[in-house]
């Protein structure tokens, strides 16, 4: 009997070590995963839930994910999948506008207005294109890495980014913010 107890204690210690490694990884990557989830969903209230669900799915597989070095790709793909699933569930719902933020005395500068305008345009993209743009320009991933996260071919990842940028340019042209060559505020005279 005492030998069985020591085996159980060893198993508990191994499980604890696995959880500590997972906890340390979550502590170091958690804020970046939250930002990624926000950028993919465009919603502050959904982002933490998506991260939590993705991490809950990763924990049982942690040893193999950590050993293969695919933990971050797995969690990011889970976040993207969760966002798409949520979008599919909610697409029939009519959303009400968000509560207006409290007025502040701070007047946003041109950089902040440009960033806000860019983010509003990115939010109009389909979810796979939005995820590809966020991965490419916010996370600074290569097309091969984007393909891994989105679970698609590298050519498809390139296509998502290319089509997203084409749509963004088109919408900017419609707004009159950019000329045909992509130059801001230049007259074509």
Automatic annotation (TrEMBL):
Residue stretches making up the RNA polymerase sigma-70 region domain: 27-92
Keyword Magnesium assigned: no
CDD domains according to UniProt: Sigma70_r4
Any Pfam family hit: Sigma70_r2
UniProt KW keywords: DNA-binding, Sigma factor, Transcription, Transcription regulation
GO biological process, one term: DNA-templated transcription initiation
InterPro entries: RNA_pol_sigma-70-like, RNA_pol_sigma-70_dom, RNA_pol_sigma-E_actinobac, RNA_pol_sigma70_r2, RNA_pol_sigma70_r4_t2, RNA_pol_sigma_r2, RNA_pol_sigma_r3/r4-like, WH-like_DNA-bd_sf
Keyword DNA-binding annotated: yes
GO molecular function (one): sigma factor activity
Residue ranges occupied by any RNA polymerase sigma factor 70 region 4 type domain in the UniProt entry: 117-168
Protein family membership: Belongs to the sigma-70 factor family. ECF subfamily.
Listed name of the protein: RNA polymerase sigma-70 factor (Sigma-E family)
Organism name: Nocardioides albus
């Amino acid at each position: 009997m005492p030998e069985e107890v020591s085996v159980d204690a060893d198993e508990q210690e191994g499980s604890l070590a696995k959880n500590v490694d997972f906890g340390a990884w979550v502590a170091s990557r958690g804020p970046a995963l939250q930002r990624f989830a926000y950028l993919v969903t465009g919603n502050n209230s959904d982002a933490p839930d998506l991260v939590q669900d993705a991490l809950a799915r990763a924990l049982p597989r942690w040893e193999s994910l950590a050993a293969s070095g695919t933990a971050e790709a797995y969690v990011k793909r889970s976040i993207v999948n969760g966002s798409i699933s949520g979008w599919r569930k909610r697409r029939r719902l009519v959303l009400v506008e968000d509560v207006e933020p409290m007025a502040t005395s701070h007047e946003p500068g041109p950089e902040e207005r440009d960033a806000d305008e860019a983010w509003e345009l990115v939010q109009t993209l389909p979810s796979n294109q939005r995820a590809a743009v966020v991965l490419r320009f916010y996370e600074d991933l290569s097309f091969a890495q984007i393909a891994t996260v989105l679970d698609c071919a590298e050519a498809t990842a390139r296509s998502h980014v290319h089509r997203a940028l084409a749509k963004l340019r088109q919408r900017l042209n419609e707004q009159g913010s950019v000329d045909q060559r992509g130059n801001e505020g230049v007259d074509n005279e």
